[in-house]
Amino acid sequence: MMTLVIYDISDDRTRLKVANTCKRFGLNRIQMSAFLGEISSSRRKELIKKLKRILKGEGNIQVFVICKPDFSLREVIGDYVEEGCDSTIII
Questions:
Q1: Across the chain, which distance is largest between two alpha carbons, in Å?
Q2: Of 3.40.50.300, 3.30.43.20, 3.30.70.240, 3.40.50.800, which CATH number belongs to 2-71?
Q3: How far apart are CA 19 and CA 77, in angstroms?
C-alpha cells in the first residue's frame, strides 16, 4: 500500500529528523513537508513508532494509507518531479 506522510513542524531540528526518517524508510519527498512511497504494513508501523519518538513538542504528523486503485485516481497539477527521477509529470 502507498503511504503518505505529511507534517507541520516548526522546529527545524525535529523537521529534519522527520524528513530523514521518511527517506530512510524509502519514502520520496513529493512536497516540502510530504513524503510518499510503498512500504509494507509492518514497516509502516515501525515508521510510525519512530515518528512518535521524534515528535516531542509542538507539531503534527499525519500518516495516510492509500490503496493502489485510489492512488491511481490522483491528479497532479503543476510541475512534479519524483526524487531520483528527472522527468516532469504534468497533468
A1: 38
A2: 3.30.70.240
A3: 23
Angstrom distance (rounded) from CA 27 to CA 40:
12
**What is this structure's pTM?**
0.83
pLDDT of residue 83: 58
Over range 10-35, report the average pLDDT.
96
Beta strand pairing status for 2-8 and 60-66?
antiparallel
Sign of CA dihedral 49, 51, 55, 60: negative
Task: Please classify residue 75 by burial: count the beta carbons closer than 10 Å to its beta carbon, then call 0-12 exposed, 13-18 middle and 19+ buried.
Answer: exposed
Instruction: Assign 90 a pLDDT band (cuts: 50, 70, 90).
Output: very low
pLDDT, one tens digit per residue, over 77-86 is: 988 666 544 3
* H or E element that contains 61: strand 60-66
